[in-house]
Amino acid sequence: MRILVLNGPNLNMLGKRYEKHYGTVTLSDINTMLGKIAAQHNCKLVFFQSNHEGALIDFLQKEAGKSDGILVNPGALTHYGYSLRDALVDTKLPIVEVHLSDITKREDFRKIDVLDGIVVKRIMGLKEKSYIVGLEKLIKHIKNL
Predict the structure, then answer these.
(1) CB of 87 within 8 A of CB of 115?
(2) Active site residue 99
(3) Which of 22, 41, 52, 80 is catalytic?
(4) From 18, 99, 131, 141, active-site residue
(5) CA distance linking residue 145 with residue 142, whole number of Å
(6) Which residues share a beta bridge with 73?
C-alpha cells in the first residue's frame, strides 16, 4: 500500500505557529509519527508539502497513478483551493482530510471547506493526533475496498 501525505501552505511552520490552534510539534515530528504507524501496516508514505497550490497539483498528477490513497491537510487552501479540489477528484483515490484545529469553531471564512463531499473522512481539532487518526482511518478504508 502506498499513501500520499499532502500538506499545504504554512504547514512547514508547525511548531512555530499559534500554539492554541496548531500545537507545538513540527511537520517533521508528525511525519515521523505517521511513518511508525505506516510501518505497522506495511504501508509506504510519500510526503510532500508546498506553499504553492500548483506544486501540490503537480505532485498529485505525478504520484497518484502509483498510489492507493491520500491523506491531506490543505491548510488555507481548504477554504478556496478549487483547483486543488479538482486535482484531488481527478486522482480517483480515497482521500482523508485532516486539520489540527477544528475549522468549524474558528473564523467564519474557515467554515467553508471546498473538499466537502469528496473525502471519505474529515478529522479535525485533535492537533497532531488528527493525522494519526486520519491515517488509521484511511488505511482501514483502503483495506476494505
Answers:
(1) no
(2) yes
(3) 22
(4) 99
(5) 5
(6) 7
Q: Which CATH superfamily is domain 2-143 in?
A: Dehydroquinase, class II (3.40.50.9100)
pLDDT band at 41 (very low <50, low <70, confident <90, very high): very high
Sorted by where each begins, the domain ranges of the chain are: 2-143
Strand stretches in the chain, DSSP E: 2-7, 44-49, 69-73, 95-99, 121-124
Contact 74, 33 (CB under 8 A): no
- pLDDT at position 133 over 90: yes
Q: Report d(CA 38, CA 78) in Å as an integer.
A: 25
Active site residue 22: yes
Task: Characterize the bridge pairing of strands 95-99 and 121-124.
Answer: parallel
Give the β-pairing of 44-49 and 69-73. Answer: unpaired
Q: Which amino acid is at 86?
A: D
- How does pLDDT run across 55-100, given as a tens digit for each residue? 999 999 999 999 999 999 999 999 999 999 999 999 999 999 999 9
pTM: 0.95
